[in-house]
Amino acid sequence: IDTACQPKHYNEAGVGRGWRRAANELGLDREDIFIQTKFTTLSGQDPDRLPYDQGAELTEQVKQSFEASLKNLNTDYIDSLVMHGPEDSWEKTLAVWRVFETFVEKGKVRQLGVSNMYDPSAVEYLYKNTSVKPAVVQNRFYADSGHDKEIRKFCLDHSMEYQSFWTLGANRHVIDDSKVRALAVQKGLTPETLMYAFVMAIGATPLDGTTSETHMKEDIAMLNRIQSGVPVFESDIELKIMSSLLEI
Question: How far, in Å, CA of 33 to CA of 147, rounded?
């Protein structure tokens, strides 16, 4: 589950109630559920619904945000804590990261990541100048960034996870393409689940924000298929249909 301590756009408390209810109904433990949340800096918050003290120092805001996340999410640890975006200077960005690292040292967080960082050199700089290395880069998967080709390679080379969002919305031309639709029919998938399968095939993790139960079932069926060892793409030619449209 991916969320954020940002009441403007996310409902962390709803996630907390939701995973608890699901765990009770399905007989799951906390360890069976992966929860990822984010620290969002002041400029990204609704001033009327701040999760921390507006007048506090940045590092204190990070601590307050984290405590709010633990309370909202009904948990005593976070699997993945992500910076919602870099600060306006490296000094501030690294100050936030240093606080993040203390959460890892205390066993409150299991891994760290960054979102909305589209400069490959910035990702490399963050990696080289931190003690607890970023395990995740979460970015919009779209043409304006060249679909993060360099960043995705850096992630693969350094055992980091590249998480894509806006995977479908930013790439409608691929989903609507006649060749892609024909390939989806051939594979017994929807164009959307074929797109997700492609993103996974190139080593990324697509984030799925659907609220449709039908789409959820389709996406889970695709995941189960991949996890059972049944390939979606059986040749480079099939992969090329997708990659050529994305120009990657």
Answer: 29
